[in-house]
Specification:
Elements lengths: L8 E5 L4 H12 L3 E6 L14 H13 L4 E5 L5 H15 L4 E4 L13 H21 L8 E5 L16 H25 L5 E7 L10 H7 L8 H7 L13 H12 L10 E4 L15
Parallel strand pairs: 1-2, 1-4, 2-3, 4-5, 5-6, 6-7
Helix pairs in contact: 1-2, 1-8, 3-4, 4-5, 6-7
Organism: Cryptosporangium aurantiacum
Protein name: SDR family mycofactocin-dependent oxidoreductase
Family: Belongs to the short-chain dehydrogenases/reductases (SDR) family.
Length: 288
């Protein structure tokens, strides 16, 4: 079924690469115009490089190749005024706003990350989500859909908040737990206005966040300088299904469903795209 979000406008944060770019392109392929933002700078406590301005421009080129309109803005989701300005600019040019994909995130893992890494993770991964939703909300009307990127780390204890992962890992888990709670409570508040709020919680996704030196070290602490090939041997331990990770497109499929009218009565959902990663910590709900 083509055109599942035809004529709509989607605001996507962290859109320069990875999941954000994938979401922008999937929505554009189904008929949406895109407002795309990214910080396009590194964050000191996050020990892998973030996207660049060239990456964001490439996202725009790929959206336009799909014959959709796109507005790109270099903006830091931690900075409320920058997010508000980006949304206002996008809506002024594209005329409306129907879909919010609050996706921007960092994962500053490692025992060498200073305490500031906790604050940076929370500021990007939780406050950045809230800033995106707050900036978009005045432009949303009945039928709008808000999708927030969570993580299995926010739904399972002992993930990135393992003390060996440092303050940034603790901040990441805290933020993703906060996203899940925010989605639940916002969905309740916005439901009378027919504005839906849902979360997608991925397991490991094959993006630059996963394919990074700090992440390789988390998965292969037995090695001093593990490579991607070394980490690939350990990645499958995360999921009962025999895969090392999911692809960005797998998450984009979930985002598209939640953005489309196919999910028009779905709100407050914590949608796991995790290849079974959280099954060990849950039960069927059947009586004992």
């Amino acid at each position: 079924m083509a055109g599942r979000v035809q004529g709509k406008v989607a605001f996507v944060t962290g859109a320069a690469r990875g999941q954000g770019r994938s979401h922008a392109l999937r929505l554009a392929a189904e008929g949406a115009d895109i407002i795309a933002i990214d910080i396009c700078e590194d964050i000191e406590t996050n020990h892998y490089p973030l996207a660049t301005t060239a990456d964001l421009e490439e996202t725009a080129r790929l959206v336009e190749k799909l014959d959709r309109r796109v507005v790109i803005v270099k903006a830091d989701v931690r900075e409320r005024s920058q997010v508000f300005d980006a949304v206002r600019r996008g809506v002024a040019e594209l005329g409306r706003l129907d879909i919010v994909v609050a996706n921007a995130g960092i994962c500053p893992l490692g025992g060498d990350v200073p305490p500031q890494g906790f604050l940076d993770a929370v500021s990007v991964d939780l406050i950045g989500v809230i800033n995106a939703v707050e900036a978009a909300f005045p432009h949303l009307t009945a039928g709008a859909s808000i999708i927030c990127t969570g993580s299995v780390a926010g739904l399972a204890p002992g993930g990135t908040d393992n003390p060996e992962n440092g303050p940034g890992g603790a901040g990441y888990s805290h933020a993703k737990r906060g996203v899940a709670r925010f989605v639940h409570d916002a969905a309740l508040q916005f439901a009378p206005h027919s504005i839906r709020v849902n979360a997608v919680h991925p397991t490991n996704v094959d993006t630059d966040m996963l394919q990074s030196a700090p992440m390789y070290k988390i998965f292969r602490p037995d090695l001093e300088n593990p490579t991607r090939e070394d980490a690939e041997l350990a990645f499958p331990a995360m999921q009962p299904m025999p895969i090392p990770y999911v692809e960005p497109g797998d998450i984009s499929n979930a985002v598209l469903f939640l953005a489309s009218d196919e999910s028009r009565y779905v709100t407050g959902l914590q949608l796991k795209v995790d290849a079974g990663a959280l099954l060990a910590g849950t039960n069927s709900g059947a009586p004992a």
